[in-house]
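Budget justification aside, the reviewers requested a transparent look at the raw inputs and outputs of the sequence design task funded under Objective 1. We therefore reproduce one unedited record. The lines immediately below are the structure tokens for a 184-residue chain.
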């Protein structure tokens, strides 16, 4: 892996390993990594007991005490792997936008338009139906009921509150679930 492909923290760590002791500005200058990034990284290494602070008058010098291999790459600053997944908030917004634009929609249509799993689309449509945002119409197809938008309150999607209802951010109001959705 070339220096361009290495993360700033990885370059800083490799520079720290080559020195018996170092200061943050020395590492920043040698590696071209921003000083604040080096400071934050050194602080996290200090908390993890991988480096130790040695006072030299007013200057803070550090030394590596645990030179074990560290994992770099996709992850958070704490070294945990970052899970890149679709945010439920983003999915909900996509579904709500599709419903607003189409006004009449089926579960397979919603799933295809928004790239959301069919079960998630079905759950969201049923929740909207139970709280009065949608009305289900029998279109003769048992697999794909047609849902019609009957309550449009604004651009923000209603947020499901487990077992209670849907919170509408546009009106700052809770629409409780009814026992059954209305059919027409």
């Amino acid at each position: 892996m070339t220096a361009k492909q290495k993360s700033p923290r990885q370059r800083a760590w490799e520079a720290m390993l080559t020195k018996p002791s170092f200061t943050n500005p020395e590492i920043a200058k040698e590696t071209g990594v921003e000083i604040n990034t080096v400071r934050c990284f050194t602080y996290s290494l200090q908390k993890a007991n991988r480096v130790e602070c040695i006072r030299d008058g007013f200057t803070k010098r550090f030394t590596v005490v645990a030179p074990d291999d560290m994992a770099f790459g996709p992850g958070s600053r704490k070294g945990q792997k970052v899970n890149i997944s679709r945010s439920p908030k983003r999915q909900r917004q996509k579904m709500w936008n599709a419903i607003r634009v189409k006004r009449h929609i089926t579960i397979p249509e919603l799933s295809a338009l928004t790239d959301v799993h069919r079960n998630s689309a079905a759950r969201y449509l049923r929740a909207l139906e139970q709280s009065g945002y949608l009305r289900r119409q029998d279109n003769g197809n048992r697999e794909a009921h047609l849902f019609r938008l009957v309550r449009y309150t604004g651009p923000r999607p209603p947020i499901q509150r487990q077992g209670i209802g849907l919170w509408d951010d546009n009106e700052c109001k809770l629409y409780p679930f009814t026992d059954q959705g209305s059919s027409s």
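The chain has a mean pLDDT of 83. The beta strands are 51-56, 59-64, 104-105, 134-137, 146-149, 159-161, 165-168, 173-176. Computational costs for records of this kind are itemized in the attached budget.
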